[in-house]
Amino acid sequence: MAKNNPFIVIITAFLVQSLIFSFVKAAATNITTDQHALLAFKDHITYGPVNLLAKNWSTSSSVCTWIGVTCGVRHHRVTTLNISNFGLAGTIPPQLANLSFLQVLDITNNSFSGSLPDELAQLRRLKLVNFMFNSFHVEIPSWFGSLSKLQVLLLNNNNLVGTIPLSFGNLSSLRVLDLSYNQLSDSFPSIFFNIPSLQVIYLSYNSLSGGLPSDICNYLPNLKMLHLSSNMFDGPIPSTISKCQQLQMLSLSINNFTGYIPKEIGNMSMLTKLYLGINKLHGMVPSEIGNLCNLKILALQFLNLAGIVPNTIFNI
Ligand SMILES: *[C@@H]1O[C@H](CO)[C@@H](O)[C@H](O)[C@H]1NC(C)=O
Ligand SMILES: *[C@@H]1O[C@H](CO)[C@@H](O)[C@H](O)[C@H]1NC(C)=O
Ligand SMILES: *[C@@H]1O[C@H](CO)[C@@H](O)[C@H](O)[C@H]1NC(C)=O
Ligand SMILES: *[C@@H]1O[C@H](CO)[C@@H](O)[C@H](O)[C@H]1NC(C)=O
Ligand SMILES: *[C@@H]1O[C@H](CO)[C@@H](O)[C@H](O)[C@H]1NC(C)=O
Ligand SMILES: *[C@@H]1O[C@H](CO)[C@@H](O)[C@H](O)[C@H]1NC(C)=O
Ligand SMILES: *[C@@H]1O[C@H](CO)[C@@H](O)[C@H](O)[C@H]1NC(C)=O
Ligand SMILES: *[C@@H]1O[C@H](CO)[C@@H](O)[C@H](O)[C@H]1NC(C)=O
């Protein structure tokens, strides 16, 4: 009976058709697609020293030999575009999204500006995006949240404005996030609490405000570095910060944190660098700090601290 069920026949036909369609679609992109994408990118370079790309990115040679381009061994498609330190200026065209095998996109230390096109959301294989030290003066687009394999995202030292998009909560593979030296506002993003893989968070030199959530370490147990310096954070330093037992570097300096330095910080045995200076902290430096046997830097300048630095410091 089931064999002749017209419904099943139609479904099967439909499945076969979609399968064929996806094969055709996959076959339709090849290294020529990558070449067109990179040539479109080249067309959007407005300045470069001795026209580096104009000479090197020539159609007479394979894209896989072009400077800054690496192809994969298996598919012979572009997997890495690394043009860091090339001294280029320009914009990023939507055609770049046709580099469908791209895993690494590194354009650090150039002068790229303009928008970050929505089409780049198609680059689903991206693991590392490094746009640091460029001139992007836009809001961070929410499409970054679609890059589910992204492990490292470096957008620091641009002029990014607005808030950190909620879609970042979908970056379930993210380990390293650097958004420092921008003009981002709002509070410490609770969306980070969806990303337990996070190990390194740099948010320093922005305009973030509000308190540091006391449950941060329940959600981010793997945190190794937390940089929040030079923002407008206020309120107490939660004593529960000591639950981040992997933390090696904690920088809260140049904010408006108030209250005491929690003695529980003395439990954070991995801590090597602790920056708390230029805040509104008061009271004593807790003697427990002397338990931090790995501590190499302790910065406490310009605090309203009473008393003297405890002798236990000299244990370190
Ligand atoms: C890439 O595919 C196009 C058709 O989509 C074809 O004309 C071209 O020859 C292919 N290029 C290579 C290098 O296979
Ligand atoms: C482009 O640069 C690469 C790396 O420096 C070099 O190996 C290649 O030969 C150059 N290609 C051309 C056409 O100049
Ligand atoms: C890109 O190239 C630079 C200089 O060659 C190198 O230092 C950097 O590690 C590369 N980026 C990635 C992600 O491999
Ligand atoms: C940035 O790139 C320029 C060349 O455009 C180079 O001279 C400079 O050393 C690079 N800076 C860093 C930190 O690599
Ligand atoms: C490349 O990207 C452009 C713009 O996003 C698009 O119109 C075009 O169809 C793409 N080409 C291929 C071969 O995928
Ligand atoms: C996260 O991803 C899910 C499923 O892909 C989607 O439904 C949701 O809207 C995304 N959330 C955000 C904040 O983008
Ligand atoms: C701290 O708060 C004062 C107002 O109480 C404000 O003027 C100052 O800019 C704040 N500093 C920082 C670093 O947020
Ligand atoms: C953390 O430190 C406090 C006070 O210094 C202490 O009472 C507590 O037992 C410590 N907790 C852990 C998990 O070491």
UniProtKB/TrEMBL annotation:
| Record keywords, A-Z | Leucine-rich repeat, Membrane, Repeat, Signal, Transmembrane, Transmembrane helix
Database matches in SUPFAM superfamilies: L domain-like
InterPro entries registered for this protein in UniProt: DNA_repair-toleration, Leu-rich_rpt, Leu-rich_rpt_typical-subtyp, LRR_dom_sf, LRR_N_plant-typ, LRR_R13L4/SHOC2-like
Residues in the signal sequence: 1-26
- Keyword Transferase on this protein? no
The record, for Pfam families, names:
LRR_1 (PF00560), LRR_14 (PF23598), LRR_8 (PF13855), LRRNT_2 (PF08263)
**Keyword Transmembrane applies:** yes
The residues covered by the Leucine-rich repeat-containing N-terminal plant-type domain are 33-71
Domain of life, per lineage: Eukaryota
Cite the Disease resistance R13L4/SHOC-2-like LRR domain residue spans from the record: 90-187
- SMART domains xrefs: LRR_TYP
Protein name as it appears in the record: Leucine-rich repeat-containing N-terminal plant-type domain-containing protein
Q: Which organism is it from?
A: Dipteronia sinensis
